[in-house]
Design a protein that fits this description.
By secondary structure, this protein is of the alpha/beta class. The protein has a single domain, classed as Formyl transferase, N-terminal domain (Rossmann fold, 3-Layer(aba) Sandwich). Helix content is 32%, strand content 25%. The protein has six helices and ten strands; from the N terminus they run βαβαβαβαβαββαβββ. The strands form two sheets. The chain has a seven-stranded mixed β-sheet, with helices on one face. A three-stranded antiparallel β-sheet has the order 8-9-10. Helix 1 packs parallel to helix 6. The longest helix has 24 residues.
């Protein structure tokens, strides 16, 4: 029997998706375990979540580094100490350098609060409201050097109501994020999910541009 996959999670804030992954694998520790949590911001609640779950955690404050390149080198070195099989970005609010991404390509996942390729970057909920969209959601994708441009694995859609503001819509999307992100991590750790030629492949089948369960 193979040993459990080792997951390192990068965070910058509250850590609700981190918590969802911790909870999901609590009874599936034979499949995967979160072995490290790294934040680029001190004293965020995500670090407290790691502490409560007895998961090693550290803050590598990006403000302590002169530029993005030196930070990413230090970050990679810290990650390598945990010897992860998978790197999960869970609200990690940093644009990563190409060298960093290449080092973990095919082994790094992110969740983005929009139905990609719509609304890359920030303020996605307000953008969806301003555009008059009838639906919005979240996308889990492999990370590539193109910002929020890696192949989509799964999307989860929510309705947008006329009375919604960005905060209300964000809460609706975050609820879906907590459902789908652990599932995708599970697929990867069970060797069902891989990235081949910049495409997401699940159970040997190349996924469409909008990912699995596009409906």
């Amino acid at each position: 029997m193979s040993s459990p996959s080792r997951i390192v999670v990068l965070v910058s804030g509250n850590g609700s998706n981190l918590q969802a992954i911790i909870d999901y694998f609590e009874n599936r520790s034979h499949v995967a375990q979160v072995v490290g949590v790294i934040s680029n911001v001190p004293d965020v609640f995500a670090l407290e979540r790691a502490k409560v779950s007895n998961i090693p955690s550290v803050c590598l404050n990006h403000k302590d580094y002169d530029n993005r390149e030196t930070y990413d080198i230090a970050l990679k070195n810290k990650i390598d100490e945990y010897a992860p099989d998978l790197l999960v970005l869970a609200g990690f609010m940093r644009i990563l350098t190409e060298d960093f991404v290449r080092a973990f390509e095919g082994k790094m996942l992110n969740i983005h609060p929009s139905l990609l390729p719509k609304y890359k970057g920030l303020n996605t909920h307000q953008k969806a409201i301003d555009a008059g969209d009838k639906e919005h959601g979240a996308s889990v994708h492999f990370v590539t050097p193109e910002l929020d441009g890696g192949p989509v694995i799964i999307q989860s859609k929510v309705p947008v109501f006329i009375e919604d503001n960005a905060s209300v819509l964000a809460q609706r999307v975050q609820q879906q994020e907590r459902n789908v992100y652990p599932l995708v991590v599970d697929w990867f750790c069970n060797e069902r999910l891989v990235m081949i030629n910049n495409k997401a492949v699940l159970d040997g089948n190349e996924l469409p541009q909008s990912g699995y369960a596009a409906d």
